[in-house]
Design brief:
The protein is α+β, with helices and mostly antiparallel strands. It has one domain. Helix content is 34%, strand content 17%. The chain is built from four helices and four strands, in the order ααββββαα. A four-stranded antiparallel β-sheet has the order 1-2-3-4. The termini are far apart.
Amino acid sequence: MSGECQLPGLCPTLLGKACQIFLTLAYPEGEPSIPASKRAYLRISAESGFELLLQAPVCQLLARPDGGTRGYAFRLGSQRFPHLKLQVVGQGQSELVFSVDTHDQVRVDPKHPDAFAWAELQAANRKLKEEIEHTWEAAGLLTFNAVLRRELEK
């Protein structure tokens, strides 16, 4: 990935707001508990080298089937699960939709010794996803659930 933003409308202010909410809720013990490689996403400013934040290993480009850019996924993790991702995708010509990918849809045999712990982690991830996305909406960011509600109201 070149590091140049390929998603119209995504700017440091918008990504900064989304990341700050995500990281604050995902790491409730505060900034020292956030892995060093992800702390730059806590306070994004226009002068903070935005293009550097759009590079691997934290950021992954999400491609459309035609080769264009669909969006970005940021593997920011959480206190309990390092694979949690903040995703931002373009919708239509001018909207950006934010979502949390729990990245935990693995099916575990109920007889497996870790089945209960895995189910508990998945439940905690779902709860955190709901909390982050609700907080994003309250802060004026568009979420997939808000898009669905809007479509249902038509």
